Amino acid sequence: MSDTHHTGSPPLPPSVGFDAPAGRHRCRAYRRRILEISQQVPALHVAPAFSCTEIADALYEGSLRGDDVFLMSKGHGCLIQYAILEARGILSKNDLDLYCQPAGRLGAHPDYGTPGIAASTGSLGHGLGIAVGQAYAEKLKRTGVRIFCLVSDGELQEGSTWEAMMMAANLKLDNLIAVIDNNDFSGLERMSEGHPAFYPLAAKGAAFGWETAETDGHDGASIVDAIDRRHGGAPLLLVCRTVKGKGVSYMEHVPMWHYRSPSPEEYRQALAELEEP
Known about the structure:
By secondary structure, the chain is of the alpha/beta class. The protein has eleven helices and eight strands. Helix 1 packs across helix 3 and helix 6 runs parallel beside helix 7. The longest helix is centred in the N-terminal third of the chain and has 19 residues. It is globular. The two termini are 24 Å apart.
């Protein structure tokens, strides 16, 4: 369960229940699909996608409703979004098979205009600002549409992210949910070692006027529950504790897997580790 800190009105009613075993099955399949793609290119961002696999799955399967928007601010994690969009029939198998190929349309970062992609991201620190603008527009139109923005912890080194957070609170954008993939890595170094003043994240979000919660970022049901139990009246910052490279033993907490593709032998080992129990 999530550790939620909030003030304000009573919790919003819960969404449709999240099937945790089905979620675990989907996430293993998504990781295997991403590994398949890794054998087509010399380098790609496997570990950043693996750290937010359960987050993205929980949002798509348990939180998004109607015309709600998912915005992948950490564009380098887009492989998990591509895999989910393929499973939902929004992208084709051919689209993913041609990832980063001259004849394909999917790049290492998501591009607006691609089916299912809400914004061009990957220039880190801009996604939350875009999400604030989208949330404000939906507020003005009184559509009830919510914006879910998946942000890397490394992006919180960008001043533009904090400017967006301040503006979201000023505008009382309670239709904005920012989810932090807190894997404690920024490229090649641990945030807790290179930037110790970065923590605590939830307290900083609360100081900026956001409702905040923290949870296990690899527990889909807990993620959905934390969002369902929010009070409302302010934007929500959900800090998800994650493991970079989650699911493959030799990738977990190892910086080089931010960038490289597994060798054929490493690929086979990873697939074996991701077999159904």
